[in-house]
Amino acid sequence: MAGSGTAHLRAPGDALLRAEHLVVEFPIGRTGLKVNAVSDVSIDIREGETLGLVGESGCGKSTTGKAIMQLPPPTSGSVVFDGSDLVKLHGEELRRVRTRIQMIFQDPISSLNPRRKVEDIIAEGMRIWKIGDEKSQQAKVDEVLDACGLDPAVARGRRPHQFSGGQCQRISIARALVTEPKLIICDEPVSALDVSVQAQILNLLEDMKARYGLTLVFIAHDLAVVKNVSDRVVVMYLGKVCEVGPPDQIYERPAHPYTSALLAAIPVADPSIKPSDRPALGGEIPSPVAPPSGCRFRTRCPRAQDVCAQQEPEIQEIAAGQYVACHFPLAPGETLPIGPRASSVSASSD
Amino acid sequence: MTLEGGVALSATFPDPSGAAAPAGLEVSPRKKLGFGGWFALVWLALVILCAVLGSILPGVSSFNTTFLDAASSKPLTHGHILGVDDNGHDTLSMLVVGARASLEVAFGAVAAGILLGGSLGLIAGYYKGVVDLLISTVFDVMLAVPALILALALVSFLRGDPQKTHWPAEVVLIIALGIVSTPVLGRITRASALTWSQREFVMAARAQGAKNFRIMWREVLPNVLPALFSIALLSVGIVIVAEGGLSLLGVGIPFDQKPSWGNMIALFGQSNLRDAPYLVFAPIICLFLTVLSLNLLGDVVRARFDVRESSV
Amino acid sequence: MSPRRKGERFSDAPLEGPLLEVHDVITHFKTARGLVRAVDGVSFSLERGKTLGIVGESGSGKSVLSKSIMGLLPKRNVVRGGSIKFEGREIGSATQKEMQHYWGTEMSMVFQDPMTALNPVMRVGKQITESLRYHLDVSRQYAQDTALTLLESVGIPEPQRRLREYSFQLSGGMRQRVMLAIALACGPKMLFADEPTTALDVTVQAQILDLLQAQQRDRFMAMILVTHDLGVVAGRADDIAVMYAGRIVEKAPARALFTQMRHPYTEALMKSIPKLALPSHTRLESIAGRPPDLVNPPRGCSFAPRCPYAQQRCRDEEPKLEPVGTEGHEFACFYPVGTPEGADALATNQAATNQAPTNHAAGAPTSGTI
């Protein structure tokens, strides 16, 4: 799975954000080895769009989101946001641009400082940049709290531990909204929440997007969640892009074997569908320290051939708006064979 | 169980995972002080009162007052509750007056250690990388030298030529012991800052354009302080003892200038242990109770400020 | 494949009747805030070789329930009640010491987080052979061989090598397989799987769930699969019990639960899950509010404050879990979904809501719950 290439990017003028050839590597101590977290990933986002980044742990989706924020900056590549390349910005300029891109994190508890009051947490962005006087700051805090479904009078003076996880996530969203950003990167915002609360937060994000005219990058491992909120989905595997396209289309006819396997692995709340009748992947994601040659998915791919080990597939358009990086993409309607289930695991899995 | 779970769960009952005793995770609005806590508070209040007021207190004579008629008398004679030493100084008065020197040195040194070690540790833990490597190496080197030897060396260095020195003995001790306590306090701060800096609210602050200093000051420091304070309280106890140790070695505060618990133990331990053990044991007991109280208080502080993030 | 058990320990166990009978089990925790009713009167029975799925959100008491049955909860500050019968013998009041004879050989458990459940300083092989040697008193060599067979059977490649490795050298999925091998070592008759796949990736989750199912079938083992995800139990459990605020609100054979769900909570839970089959940007129907405070549960039905069907009766009276309709289908509701009563109740509420505007969906923290 490769995913090098930029065929899926749209005209530069159309995009609010265009990240090209992002590479993020983390050296491991002084061993000379490095974790290839993101290897040549390109994405673009149109204004008002929700881009879903989906994949299993270790696929580099979160690292991509953070690289856009320059937290930390990518090892190489460019991130053009609203006409300026963030990678080239430093100091004050970078700090100022960051206020227009905000993040919401997975762990609602960890993302709020336990020693600060909710009003201080939310007003922080305005205080840093000295936006408005105290009165207007307070008014803004009340506004975003109210927009996020929390009663400002009650919530303002409390500390994060006095709230449930779902409510903490609302506070995080309120904090992200206060500097009036254009783009919000949501890094697994609902995966730590209960199902019923998850739905509340997803609906809230959709409402906030409409109300404040936001553009969202939505990072999650749950394909169903990503599908629900996204206009365009990027499926990632081991630091590479596998498939890009509109969610309904990708779900209808996944072209990449990995997308297909991912879809088949999602437990469906329908007892008439027997899990054993659905294709499944063997093995686990290989180490990003020594990723497989060629297509990185080949070690688990039931369709892999010799060429997959030698040559990395380029991203190409397979249907209108649907792009795939695979030498042997699935034809529409084609599914993976019902492959190795629980009993066997490929030897390459460790 | 999902995280929301963790929250809602512990909001209502102790996390049932594993054999975790529910008692440990119990939701307690305000932990009671208990006997130990109260004892510590009362004793420390008493000691600090003595240190601040000193010879102004009724019944306490100034160090310069000598009771030659009652020289070397036993406790509870001639109106001296704890007796009088060879030179005619009232022991109780010496203890009261000595509390000041001891506490000045101890709190002063620890304050210096917090300032120096705390800020270095915070910087190391927050920036990580080369900065951390550098600062940690300094700490490690300092810790490799036995503390008492390091203190001795620093005192002799700072004191320099005894004829020309302008610094009082206490200031020298505060600086020396402050430097000695720096790596200990620094490493605690570093470890704590290291974990807190990785939390997502730090990244959130960065995303809002906060400068590093602001993040360290507002986001990381408040979370590091409780750990630092509880260790600092323990260090105060250790420094009081260390001051005594230095006195024993003859580099403490000179007894004839100003009595401290440390130099009392050193002096009387050498000359009066046989004939008047009460002279030695009185400061030792004061020292012991103070160190004990500080330890107890350290525990209370830690328990009090330990924010249960997911519960209550 | 499972090692031979010592006959005498099991000879008196009757082979007919349900394997596990749980009646009115209560687990309350004493805390500074008051008595937390984590499990508040749960009854069910489980036949040999069957799978019961227990579904609930966090705080529903599903994990506490399985730990209560296993006898894994500490004695201190815990109030236990009700009866738990395993093969007809009462174990509800057994001490931890007595329960040790059951753990491993009769019932065992797979936990959510294999990293913390495995001992990081003990070799994987040792962790498997230890329980074998303790419970079954077999020779070292026999235990070693069994461990090898076990690792093979849970789909671990190169089992010989893995036996000598430590848990941190394994991937998440491998660790969960090792956990399962340990749990299966002494051939238990019942397996508790407490969120066994929550910490794993979807593709690995599918592997582990398949493995659990295969092992269960091969060993004719009963299983209680505890999860927050209805999808996980849908195709894999014979019966499903939905828990809310410490009680079972609906219990039915899997198919019946999905086709004729009766309890409003089950319906709401189903509706709030984003579904792949629905087009993107479909508005999700979330459940308003949050689960009740288990120290001060509301009067009447505990779901009433969040229930779109709730009537005055639900706030005054507590519905009992009663068998209705299909064989094995039980639910606790006065105005069940899909019945004329339920439809009327919903219509009444909707008419009332249309007149008065709704307030905040999630609401601010109320003083009672934080």
Largest interface: A-C, 70 and 64 residues
Stretches with pLDDT under 50, minimum 5 residues of chain C: 1-11, 357-370
- Note the total helix count of chain C: 13
Structural class of chain C: alpha/beta
Helix content of chain C: 25-40%
Q: What's the overall geometry of chain C?
A: globular
Percentage beta strand of chain C: 15-25%
Low-confidence stretches of chain B: 1-29
Order of strands in the sheet with the most strands of chain C?
6-7-8-3-9-10-12-11
Query: How would you classify the helix and strand content of chain B by structural class?
Result: mainly alpha
The succession of helices and strands of chain C, N to C, reads: EEEHEEHEHHHHHEHEHEEHHHEEH
Radius of gyration of chain C: 22 Å
Shape of chain B: elongated
Major beta sheet summary of chain B: none
Cα Rg of chain B: 24 Å
Separation of termini of chain B? Answer: 19 Å
- Please give the count of helices of chain B: 10
Q: Could you name the key traits of this structure?
A:
heterotrimer; A: 350 residues; 8-stranded mixed beta sheet; 30% helix; globular; disordered C terminus; B: 312 residues; mainly alpha; 10 helices; elongated
Description of the structure:
- The complex is a heterotrimer of chains A (350), B (312) and C (370).
- Chain A has 350 residues and is an alpha/beta fold.
- Chain A has 11 helices and 12 strands.
- An 8-stranded mixed β-sheet of chain A has the order 6-7-8-3-9-10-12-11, with helices on both faces. In chain A, strands 2-1-4-5 form a 4-stranded antiparallel β-sheet, covered by helices on one side.
- The two termini of chain B are 19 Å apart.
- The relative contact order of chain B is 0.13.
- Chain B is built from 10 helices and no strands.
- In chain B, helix 3 (91-127) runs antiparallel to helix 4 (129-144).
- Chain C is α/β, with parallel strands linked by helices and 370 residues long.
- Helix content of chain C is 32%, strand content 20%.
- Chain C has 13 helices and 12 strands.
- An 8-stranded mixed β-sheet of chain C has the order 6-7-8-3-9-10-12-11, sandwiched between helices.
- At the A-C interface, helix 5, helix 6, helix 7, helix 8 and helix 9 of A face helix 7, helix 8, helix 9, helix 10 and helix 11 of C.
